[in-house]
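Example S7 (structure tokens).
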């Protein structure tokens, strides 16, 4: 079970989209006349007048279940689960319209609710997306439904707008991170797919704090795409890749050290492997000179600056 939450300003547009969809099934209306899109819109707008200053009064949630759960879900059962979901989400005492669509293989239900409740108070949207994740996971486990195995099960063909771009970036990153030893190398690989890398720096310094990925006019932080694609997570994976490649090719390690040892001499004293790995101008071929430099410093009984982890 997965919930997707959006908010908007127009009840008319949202209701028309949900109700007038081909094969749309009006399951239930709570506080609104569900037999007609215009009547339902009028009811929603009448109540929103109790809080005229609230621009984003439209709440829209799409509840999606796995195709593996299709046999156990009829419209009535989906309605019961949607009501429980709203209760756990603390969306209550307000107008709600439940509409099922049959345009996809997996069962899904559209829920339109008024963020102005029956008493004229605003239903908060703070932490709503975080709570949505927790509630969906809890209910999936409670009713022994199919637990999706991450983003791999998302139907890319049905994605639109920002979601489509986000998953495109995700798939390209997932393919290329394991093949890269450094951020510069990863940048080159992503560029071939039209994806640009943008770094966030600590104020007044050249220390990188975060990373974003841009495709066309859309840009997403790494952590927005996936937890495993935050700046720190990618950096750790690149460092791991680098170490594995060195271990597999010791003869290349010695060659890199001879060629690049002098170039790294001045910087190795003050930076650890991860710092050098993350430098945008870093040459991944320089990695093995660090090991040579550490060995030399140890032999001279100088201070060890923590090149190892």
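Recovered sequence:
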């Amino acid at each position: 079970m997965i919930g997707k939450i959006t908010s908007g300003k127009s009840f008319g547009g949202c209701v028309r989209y949900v109700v007038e969809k081909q094969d749309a099934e009006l399951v239930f209306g709570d506080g609104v006349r569900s037999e007609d899109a215009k009547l339902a819109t009028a009811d929603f707008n009448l109540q929103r007048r109790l809080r005229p200053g609230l621009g984003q009064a439209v709440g829209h949630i799409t509840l999606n279940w796995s195709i593996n759960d299709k046999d156990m879900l009829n419209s009535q059962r989906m309605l019961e689960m949607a009501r429980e979901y709203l209760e756990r989400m603390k969306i209550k005492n307000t107008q709600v319209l439940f509409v099922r669509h049959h345009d996809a293989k997996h069962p899904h239900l559209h829920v339109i609710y008024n963020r102005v409740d029956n008493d004229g108070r605003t239903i908060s949207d703070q932490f709503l997306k975080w709570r949505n994740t927790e509630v969906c996971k809890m209910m999936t486990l409670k009713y022994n439904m199919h637990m999706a195995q991450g983003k791999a099960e998302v139907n890319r063909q049905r994605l639109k707008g920002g979601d489509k771009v986000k998953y495109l970036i995700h798939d390209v990153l997932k393919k290329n991170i394991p093949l890269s030893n450094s951020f510069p190398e990863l940048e080159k690989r992503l560029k071939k797919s039209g994806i640009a890398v943008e770094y966030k720096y600590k104020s007044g310094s050249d220390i990188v704090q975060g990373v974003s990925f841009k495709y066309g006019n859309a840009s997403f932080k790494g952590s927005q795409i996936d937890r495993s694609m935050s700046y720190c997570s990618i950096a750790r994976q690149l460092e791991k890749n680098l170490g594995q490649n060195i271990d597999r090719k010791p003869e290349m390690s010695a060659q890199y050290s001879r060629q690049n040892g002098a170039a790294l001499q001045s910087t190795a004293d003050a930076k650890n492997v991860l710092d050098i790995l993350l430098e945008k101008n870093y040459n991944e071929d320089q990695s093995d000179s660090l090991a040579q430099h550490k060995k030399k410093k140890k032999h001279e009984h100088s201070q060890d600056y923590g090149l190892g982890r």
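Notes on this example. Strands lie at 2-8, 25-30, 58-64, 96-101, 108-114, 195-201, 208-215, 218-221.
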